[in-house]
Amino acid sequence: METAAVLRRDPGTAGPLCPHCRHYQFIAFKNIRWQETPKDTPGPERIQAAKNTAHYVCEKCGESIENDSRAWMLQNGKWKAVKKSAFKPQKMGFRLPSWHSPWLTWGDIAEKFLKAMQAKDETGDTEPLKNFWNGWGAEPWKQIAIITSESKILSARCELPPQVVPREAVALTCGIDCQKQGFYFVVRAWAKDMTSWLVRYGFFLSWEDVHRLIFEDTYEIEGSGMRASLWRVAIDTGGGEGEGDRSMTEEAYSFIAQCGKGVFGFKGSSREMTGKMKLTVIASKPGKKSVPIPGGGLRLWVVDTDYFKDLFHNRLQIKVGDPGAVYLHHDTDKDYARQIVSEEKRRGRDGRYKWVRVRGENHYFDAEIMASCLVDPVCYGGLGVQKASIMADHVSQGQQSTKQRVIKSR
User: Fold this and answer.
1) Which one-letter DSSP state was computed for residue 284?
2) Distances from the Cα of 131 to the Cα of 32, 136, 144, angstroms
3) List of domains in the chain
4) Residue 209 DSSP symbol
5) In the Cβ-directed half-sphere of 8, how many Cα atoms lie within 13 Å?
6) 49 sits in which H/E element
């Protein structure tokens, strides 16, 4: 029987008690956060700043848990089995990561991790990182197939200002990741050869904001005086809590059903797929009552997300100037990069490689994957159905006097 060092109040509720919302949870390294510093900050200063500001974030309420609460959390802890056997075990193993130690602070843990990452980034030496996960994390060292650094992601920045579309582009796609607290999105421009540019990314609080993003916001076409709107949009329909009694899935279904052509539901497949994408039609809203969705239902793409995550990271490796290269707008910041590298592709115990989230939030990464799926040939022909340039539908200034000339979505 494998057991973990967790804290509980009574059987069935495990993990440290959040002093803010009284939620019990496992202590997870990914929830240890610290303040980021400017990109030109020297390594020692950056690590010291992280050590001074490190804290733990409750997985439920999102509030910070400081070091002065650690002792109380640990003193109220007990051991709880996380994997039970039908037979009486002859041996038992216990896992006690360093984040449960009363002699360490959140800052000590952040410092150890960042020094190990610094060694890997500067010299390629992964031994300190291996020792961190083995000795401090009490986890086996995982063989990693794909891992990318924040600096590598940000090296894809170009001179293109935010919210400007290159003249070579033929279409704009948008991926929207739905969360309880709001909506993370990216807008990406695509050329015929699959070269792409990040035009915009951000966070919205309401469905009203999402509606404006899809149907009202437009983007300047570089050096033309023209503006472009979104071509296709993918919206995450994953579960989770929504407003009132409705789940996020119900809210997403209702919104997408009203949008019409060009706006699709998106769902990552929970099992292996024979293809990379499959289109389904959802005829009724989730729930026991099976309320029909107006208009004949909504179109939902079920996607092999591992395939598209591989593809996205492979495109990041393409040399600048070559077909298919991935670019970011000039003002892309560390928050975006941090979310793109929040996942790594690792080989599991079954020998199969899977993408797993290992740190922080991954919402922009998910949104990028959705935006990428929309240009794949499986998705109604992808970019093959687009004209040679986003300027192809341009209306001359003499024909239209308004300053907000728009290339209409196709």
Assistant:
1) B
2) 18, 7, 15
3) 2-141 (no CATH), 154-407 (3.30.420.240)
4) H
5) 13
6) helix 43-53
